[in-house]
């Protein structure tokens, strides 16, 4: 495990997480990352690296940057984490409901597409038989 005082450049993090430096700067603009500066150079620490990993994981799970930022704010304000865990459970529940609704919607669309496909196949067969 890296030492607490290990630092990273923006290109180090971009390479490690296979994202663009522009994405990292965007997360910084959104207030999710707060690197130190040495002139124009951004210096990221281990906490920044962990936050970037959490941002990307949250994105994969469907969390918005605002939701991720909310969790970071809660963590920064109250490290006892009870409130953070309750909030996380609430966000997970909401996300699961959203995904379930999307799955239901996809099933309906698939049934509709299958029905239209069958009608098209039948119409085509009728035209070929005429």
From TrEMBL:
Keyword Electron transport among record annotations: no
Pfam families: MerR_1
Name this polypeptide is given: MerR family DNA-binding transcriptional regulator
Entry GO MF terms: DNA binding
Species whose genome carries this gene: Ferrimonas pelagia
Coiled-coil regions, chain positions: 82-109
Domain of life: Bacteria
SMART domains reported for this sequence: HTH_MERR
Residue ranges of domain HTH merR-type in the record: 7-74
SUPFAM superfamilies, per database record: Putative DNA-binding domain
InterPro entries: DNA-bd_dom_put_sf, MerR-type_HTH_dom, MerR_fam
Sorted UniProt keywords: Coiled coil, DNA-binding
